[in-house]
Specification:
Layout lengths: L4 E5 L3 E6 L6 E6 L4 H11 L13 E5 L5 E6 L6 H6 L5 H17 L6 E2 L5 H20 L1 H8 L2 E4 L2 E4 L1 H9 L2 H7 L4 E2 L10 E3 L7 E3 L11 H12 L3 H5 L3 E6 L5 E7 L5 H18 L1 H17 L1 H5 L4 H20 L2
Parallel strand pairs: 7-13
Antiparallel strand pairs: 1-2, 2-3, 3-5, 4-5, 6-9, 7-8, 10-11, 12-13
Helix pairs in contact: 3-10, 4-5, 4-6, 4-11, 8-10, 8-11, 10-11, 11-13
Length: 335
């Protein structure tokens, strides 16, 4: 019998392909801490509107009333966008076309389904506080990272970045900027739109499947989704999570690092092409959408530092932090 194949594993859940006599299935399972997400995802997949059903998997079995908490989906015999970016032989133009169709779906279908009023303090709660909490949590995990976030700045190959937490605090105290970043309405989003959650078909660019959604019931702003796409393209998050990154030198006081090296440099034109396509679409959507998406990218990257660290990968955590600092600087330069 075939063995299971892990697609992705987080702190509270994992996604894997499981062999069954009736055919392989994709299973999302969760710990006690992650069970509510599984319950919400099952509820959503069972109640999708017709126009969204082709882009999400079909549930074949689920268990949400007792441990283990899980649901099984029809097996998707397609590579993820992460697979394509890091390991596949798909050409740039096809990948750009796939991303273009995905963003058309988000703008024209996903983000038009169900919208609600924006609660007070949305930007602070959903972005600023979350990023700061996770950075401090990372500092509690590893004393070396604590020294990094305690420093006033971090020098990367001679480019000096201000402390991320201080910068986030300054954004939070800028009432005009917060007002500009606050969306008019919250809408149905995917909520976890990293490349690892997007299955694509090279032969049918309009045929894609999205898994591991979160924001459909927990309404968010459109920039939240677009920012997740930028995390994978501009932020090179897939390279970092997969361990294709090394840091040559870190100073004793952890205030300077030299050269964040990414392996698989032959894949760079593909990533750059897809990123240009994403940003081009955002430009078409308007200045405010581009700005809020870049802001979301920065907050997502900084908030994902503990996940990059995982079981003790300080180099990955630092690379993710640096990616967040670069994105944060890009956002500020747009103001």
């Amino acid at each position: 019998m075939k063995e299971s194949r892990l697609i992705r594993e987080g702190l509270q859940s994992k996604i894997e392909v499981l062999p069954k006599e009736s055919g392989d299935v994709v299973r999302k399972s969760a710990t006690e801490a992650g069970k509510n997400e599984v319950i919400e995802q099952v509820d959503l997949l069972l109640s999708l509107p017709d126009e969204m059903k082709p882009y999400y998997p079909e549930i074949v079995e689920y268990q949400v009333d007792k441990a283990p908490y899980y649901y099984d989906m029809v097996f998707i015999d397609l590579p993820t966008m992460r697979d394509v970016m890091l390991y596949g032989d798909q050409n740039v133009q096809v990948t750009i076309e796939q991303m273009s169709h995905l963003m058309d779906f988000l703008q024209g279908v996903q983000h038009r389904w169900s919208n609600v009023a924006v609660p007070e303090g949305y930007v602070k709660r959903k972005y600023l506080d979350r990023a700061i909490k996770r950075l401090y949590g990372m500092a509690d995990k590893d004393y070396r990272f604590k020294r990094i976030v305690d420093n006033a700045s971090l020098s990367v190959d001679g480019e000096v970045f201000p402390n991320a937490i201080h910068t986030i605090d300054s954004i939070g105290s800028n009432g005009l900027l917060i007002a500009h970043l606050t969306p008019d309405r919250l809408v149905s989003t995917h909520g976890q739109l990293e490349f690892a959650h997007i299955f694509v078909n090279a032969n049918e660019p309009t045929n894609f499947k999205l898994i591991d959604h979160r924001g459909i019931n927990d309404r968010l702003d459109p920039g939240y989704d677009y920012g997740k796409l930028l995390v994978s393209s501009s932020g090179a998050h897939d390279w970092i999570e997969e361990g294709f990154v090394t840091i040559d030198h870190i100073s004793d006081d952890l205030s300077e690092i030299s050269v964040v090296n990414f392996d698989k440099m032959d894949r760079l034109p593909l990533r750059e092409g897809v990123n240009a396509a994403i940003e081009g679409k955002l430009v078409q959507m308007g200045e405010r959408t581009l700005l809020t998406s870049k802001f979301a990218e920065a907050m997502h990257l900084l908030g994902s530092v503990p996940y990059c660290y995982g079981a003790g990968h300080l180099d990955r955590a630092i690379a993710c932090y640096v990616a967040g600092l670069r994105s944060l600087t890009q956002f500020q330069n747009m103001l």
